[in-house]
Write a structure and sequence with these properties.
Number of domains: 2
Helix content: 40-55%
Shape: elongated
Number of strands: 7
Order of helices and strands: HHHHEEHEEHHEHEEHHH
Radius of gyration: 23 Å
């Protein structure tokens, strides 16, 4: 992935926010994450975005989130022990730095017997293929797509991956390669004192924010259209500050 600079991204605001919400409403979680990136990165094709590994994808999602909604990630999770609502707030910058530092520099290679294995990081094409597979074969699908094997000597025939118990050979390397892609929150429940760890999915989190922000923006459009008779397009082109000023006058 080419480094995405601030100028390469557009924040999900105004008509672009509504577009992302409208186009993403009928998709699954993976499709929504890719769609939001496609809206925010107009100079990158959807195929290129799907080819980014999960480190690159989530780094881009965090950057897009910071540009669209600010630095702090705020939310709630239910306590698994007592169902109390656990509030969390984390800044984007440390999470972004952690992913950037954990991202593997390239493919990993190692020797097993007379063969050399190579492993790359998972991308969204791989995740889609795994989701389409039977539940019992989803993990194997990922490994087969991301791993390859070749003989060390030309006179040794290269086996198909299926000829190996390659899940045993590859799994440890696979898990190590992708461990740094996980963002885990450690939360203390104020009600029962339990310490809970929860995975944080930036794609799902950002989609929730897009959905709520789009609903709020559409309410503003409805109110201003009724008050002034303006077209939706004109209202969406306004800055948030300008819309707020008109809303304040319309409500006075």
């Amino acid at each position: 992935m080419q480094a995405l600079l601030a100028g390469d991204m557009r924040p999900l605001t105004g008509d672009l926010l509504i577009e992302a919400w409208e186009r993403g409403s009928g998709q699954d979680a993976l499709g929504r994450a890719l769609l939001m990136l496609a809206c925010g990165c107009p100079d990158v094709t959807a195929e290129q975005i799907s080819g980014w590994d999960i480190y690159e994808r989530d780094i881009a999602l965090l950057r897009l989130r910071r540009m669209s909604f600010g630095e702090s990630l705020r939310g709630y999770l239910p306590c698994p022990s007592c169902a109390e609502s656990l509030e969390f707030e984390i800044p984007v910058a440390p999470a972004l730095q952690r992913l950037e530092e954990a991202k593997p520099a390239g493919n990993e290679a190692w020797q097993t017997g007379k063969f050399v294995f190579s492993l790359r990081t998972v991308n969204s094409h791989d995740l889609r293929a795994a989701a389409a597979a039977q539940p019992m074969t989803a993990r194997r699908t990922l490994l087969e797509r991301c791993a390859s094997v070749r003989p060390m000597d030309d006179d040794v025939e290269a086996p198909a991956l299926g000829a190996w118990d390659f899940e045993e050979v590859v799994t440890e390397h696979f898990e190590q390669m992708h461990r740094g892609s996980e963002i885990v929150l450690t939360l203390l429940c104020p009600a029962c004192g339990a310490i809970e760890k929860a995975g944080f999915d930036i794609g799902r989190f950002l989609w929730c924010e897009v959905r709520h922000a789009a609903a709020a923006l559409l309410r503003d459009v409805h109110e201003l259209a009724r008050a002034y008779g303006w077209a939706e397009e004109a209202i969406l082109r306004m800055s948030g500050v300008r819309r707020s000023a008109y809303l304040e006058m319309a409500r006075a």
